[in-house]
Amino acid sequence: MPRRLAPGGSLRRLDLAARFARLPSAMERGNAERERLYASARWRRERRVFLKANPTCCTPGCGKPSVVPDHRDGHQH
Fold it and tell me: Is residue 35 part of a domain?
């Protein structure tokens, strides 16, 4: 005789192999936003203007040519 939880109800079996929807983490959502930003025409245009105005790296002691506009502080700053 099956165990009952409530009148008319029965215990459910837990299927450990069942598929489930995986939600993206905050970091993964942020990565997707950055991918969209860096792929935009606006970003490429602003990057070109910034690198033209700042031809050398602004990190103290570096002095190399600038190739990445946000490597020192990152895009968050």
Answer: yes
